[in-house]
Amino acid sequence: MSGREQNFFMLKYFKHLNPSSFFIVTAVFLELLLNVVTPPLQAPDEFSHFYRAYQIAEGHWLPQKIDQRLGGDMPRGLIDFSNQHRNSAYNMEYTLSHREIWNSCKIRLHEEERQFQDFANTSYYSPVSYLPQAFSLFVLKKLSTSVGVLY
After folding, report:
1. Measuring CA to CA, which residue among 65, 38, 73, 40 is closest to residue 120?
2. Could you give the CA distance from residue 111 to residue 17 in angstroms, rounded to a whole number?
3. In 3D, which of 44, 41, 40, 47 has the Cα closest to residue 90?
4. Run of H or E including 88
5. How far apart are CA 81 and CA 148, in angstroms?
6. What is the DSSP string of 57-72?
7. DSSP state of 41
8. Separation between Cα atoms, residue 42 and residue 19, nearest integer Å
C-alpha cells in the first residue's frame, strides 16, 4: 500500500468515527503515552494517594489510627514498590533507569504480609473521590497482577 493509499484509508476511517469515539480513542492513547514517559511515583504525595485508593479498594472507608497516626495496613509489595521510588519523589536530581522502573513493576503484592503505613495527609479525603481508582484496583487485584500494574 502506497503512502497516498494509507492516507486515504486513515481519512476514510476518521470520517466515520463519531466525536465521542474519537475522544475515547484519543484519551486512552494519550494516557498510555503519558504512563510510558512519566515514571511512577514522581511526586511526594503520590504514595499516600496510592495507599488511600488501595485501602478503599479493600473496603476500608475510614483510616486506622495507631500511635496518633492515621493510615492503614498495606501489603508488603505495595510498600516495597513505593520504597523503590522514594528517592525520585524527594530529590529532583535523582533519575531512575528504565531497568529500575521495569524491575519495580514486577514486584508481587504479598497480601499476607502487612505493615501499618502512615498516610495521614490523604486519610481525611473523602472515599468518594477515590472510587474510580479503587474500583480499578479492586478488579486488578482479583486478577493477581503485580504492583506495577496496580499502580
Report:
1. 65
2. 44
3. 44
4. helix 76-90
5. 8
6. HTT--S-EEETTEEEE
7. S
8. 33
